[in-house]
Specification:
The chain is an alpha+beta fold. The protein is 30% helix and 27% strand. It folds into three domains: 1-110, Tumour Suppressor Smad4 (Sandwich); 118-322, Beta-Lactamase (2-Layer Sandwich); 331-560, Phosphatase 2c, domain 1 (4-Layer Sandwich). Helix 3 (151-166) packs antiparallel against helix 7 and helix 7 (284-330) runs parallel beside helix 8 (379-393). The relative contact order is 0.07. The model is unreliable at 1-5, 110-129, 252-263 and 556-561 (pLDDT under 50).
């Protein structure tokens, strides 16, 4: 945040290549500038020659300055290359590109020079009778557009000023909805009065024509209009004589691959629509004022949309953070010391929340249950399913048979096919006598380390839960010897990638487990994680990593204890 919270918010006037202007208030410090939104840019300039982290406007010591934050071709103020420079009214900032975006710094959003500069090539004859009144309308509208009123009040005032400029009977602001269709956000009638949007029928022929042409359509008299417009049933039925339809775009950028200077429009935000039952006449000045109002309205709508998206992103991050806290709270944090078994486990999600799950349950003084699961997919959907699995398998602590629980979970998931999720699982119960009863439902076989040798003897004998409705689950039995260690893992371990896209693999996992004498289950876990980290060498991982390490201490140790 800035040193002072009460500084006057300056404005960056964005000059778009190929024509058009875009106003952006500097509301905080540092105010980040660059290509794309992923690096947290407040002002995004869609030109791939501009760096993702390009520049920043910083408020310090009561002065606004521009800083180069990594622009490849440098940052220039009034043609002079700078690393850091103070900004004053009218300073022009560019990024070492003659045909790209430029920024004009304005200390006050409503300064007269910055407003008048938006109307180019005016001759003295253009500002004749009523011309000053028209300019005053632009000044008033621009001041209101950049005010702190509610968004609908700002846009309503903009429509009112556009109607006063064109002497229209009614004005509409159409907005693009989630389906990509144009729907009325607000409507006004002469005299600045609100108009109900119910039953309004703006002529779709004119709207389609403006969108196809990607430019504003200003028709002074329908008798002289294009034949398609003149013959439109909605125009005839409403006896319309004059019409203004101006598409509102977020940005316009020049195609780098085009030599003819074609301009590619940015995202369509909405449409300013005005009509009247009387013919009208528009001077060059009035047409440019309409264009200026449309640019300003698009700027306000684009800024509001970005603010809303940022709020939604923050809300989602907060909710996902809560989900992560809940998910982590459900995992075992402390492992009780047992006379016949030692255990430890860990989970590391590749996203904020993950689809891996593990648990440890005491089924009495002589029996310990443990499991690991990997839900298909990632993110919130997978995380929600892991919580359901934990609730289902906690039933085994009150005497339910493992095979029955697996069948119940499988039936539930398959009957709710819209979930489109399944899970591989390995579940086992280890007794003080070394008996290991287990079910492997499509999960990679855990590794058994016995007398310094590692093998994978617990192959999957059943389908994953939630995949095949008719699947059956059978408990297998093996015997463990004192000192045997079982390492359960998710495929985030064996499928970890190095920068050359090579997998860690089962072979490397066995080699790690055989290469050292591990005195505790915690050492086993640490060695495996370190080996995976060293192998990846900083490469981003695409899957969750989960480990559960179990060591059978043996009946003799239990008796001694």
């Amino acid at each position: 945040m800035p040193e002072s919270a009460d500084f006057n918010e300056p404005v960056l006037e964005v000059l778009v290549p190929g024509g058009g202007r875009h106003m952006m208030r500097v509301t905080h410090s540092p105010f980040m500038i660059g290509r794309g939104a992923e690096t947290g840019n407040d002002l995004q300039l869609p030109d791939r020659r501009i760096s993702r982290q390009c520049a920043a406007v910083v408020f310090t010591g009561g002065v606004f300055t521009i800083e180069d934050r990594g622009q490849r071709r440098g940052v220039y103020v009034n043609g002079e290359k700078v690393e850091r420079a103070p900004l004053k009214e009218g300073d022009v900032v560019n990024f070492g590109l003659s045909d790209s975006f430029e920024l004009v710094f304005h200390e006050n959003a409503d300064s007269l020079p910055s407003l008048l500069n938006r109307i180019e090539d005016l001759s003295s004859s253009d500002v004749g009778t009523g011309g000053l009144r028209k300019l005053n309308l632009l000044l008033e509208a621009t001041a209101l557009l950049h005010s702190h009123l509610p968004l609908d009040a700002i846009l309503g005032n903009m429509v009112d000023h556009a109607m006063a400029l064109t002497d229209a009977d009614r004005g509409l602001l159409l907005e693009r909805n989630a389906k990509g269709e144009m729907s009325a956000r607000l409507a006004r009638q002469r005299g600045g009065k609100p108009l109900s949007i119910e039953g309004l029928e703006p002529t779709q022929t004119a709207i389609r024509y403006a969108l196809d042409q990607k430019r504003g359509i200003i028709t002074e008299d329908m008798e002289q209009a294009h034949s398609d417009l003149k013959a439109a049933q909605s125009i005839i039925a409403q006896r319309l004589r004059s019409l203004v339809v101006i598409p509102l775009y977020a940005f316009a950028q020049r195609r780098d691959t085009e030599a003819d200077g074609d301009v590619e429009r940015g995202e369509l935000l909405g449409i300013l629509y005005l009509d009247s039952t009387r013919p009208a006449g528009f001077s060059a000045l009035e047409r440019q004022i309409l264009d200026a109002l449309a640019v300003e309205a698009a700027s306000v709508m684009d800024n509001a949309r970005m603010v809303e998206r940022e709020r939604e992103r923050q809300r989602m991050e907060q909710e996902i953070g809560i989900a992560r806290e809940i998910q982590q709270a459900l995992l075992p944090r402390e492992f009780e010391t047992s006379q016949h078994v030692q255990l430890t486990g860990m989970n590391q999600a590749c996203l904020t929340v993950g689809g891996d799950y593990y648990d440890v349950m005491r089924l009495g003084p002589d029996r310990t249950a443990f499991l690991i699961a990997d839900v298909s997919g990632k993110g919130l959907g997978a995380a929600l399913l892991t919580t359901m699995l934990q609730g289902a398998f906690s039933g085994m602590s009150i005497g339910h048979e493992p095979a029955d629980v697996f069948s119940h979970v499988n039936t539930f998931l398959c009957s709710h096919s819209r979930l489109e999720r399944y899970a591989t699982m390995f579940f086992a119960i280890l007794g003080a006598d070394g008996r290991l009863d287990y079910i492997n439902a499509g999960h990679p076989s855990p590794v058994l380390v016995r007398e310094g040798k590692a093998e994978a003897p617990y192959a999957a004998e059943s389908f994953p839960v939630g995949l095949i409705p008719e699947a059956t689950y059978k408990v297998e039995t093996r015997e463990l010897r004192p000192g045997d260690t079982i390492v359960l893992f998710s495929d985030g371990v064996t499928e970890a990638m190095d920068p050359e896209q090579q997998e860690f693999g089962m072979g490397r996992l066995k080699q790690v487990l055989e290469s050292k004498k591990h005195n505790s289950v915690e050492e086993v876990q640490a060695d495996v994680l370190n080996a995976v980290s060293e192998f990846a060498r900083g490469a981003r991982q695409a899957d969750d990593v989960t480990l559960v390490v179990v060591r059978f201490c043996g009946a003799a140790r239990a008796a001694q204890a």
